[in-house]
Design the sequence.
């Protein structure tokens, strides 16, 4: 009998390892409106913090680690020096999900994004 299955890292350990790789970016405590598009419906929330690699937001529905999420971050016009808010359409992967400060926090790595002016 082989020991490969006992000694190989499980999916949870692999996900934690990948999360550690992207967690190194400086995080900024910026509260920005976020619109989440998911299989269970659309909802609005706000960011808790944001970095070059991803975003942490509050979401009351469980989002399993590894799942894909589409969301839009709104950058206020007065902050970006535009006449209208700038929308950043994002697609990412959930790398962390759990209770934080009495609310569910979801950490997402942004894999793709594009700016859209409205």
Sequence:
């Amino acid at each position: 009998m082989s020991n490969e299955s006992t000694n190989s890292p499980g999916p949870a350990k692999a996900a934690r390892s990948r999360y550690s790789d992207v967690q190194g970016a400086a995080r900024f405590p910026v509260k920005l409106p976020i619109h989440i598009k998911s299989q269970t419906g659309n909802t609005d929330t706000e960011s808790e913090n944001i970095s070059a690699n991803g975003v942490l937001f509050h979401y009351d529905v469980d989002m399993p680690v590894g799942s894909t999420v589409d969301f839009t971050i709104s950058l206020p016009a007065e902050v970006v020096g535009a006449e209208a808010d700038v929308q950043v359409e994002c697609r990412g992967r959930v790398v962390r999900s759990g209770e934080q400060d009495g609310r569910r926090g979801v950490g997402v790595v942004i894999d793709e994004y594009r700016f859209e002016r409205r």
Notes: Helices lie at 4-7, 11-22, 77-80.
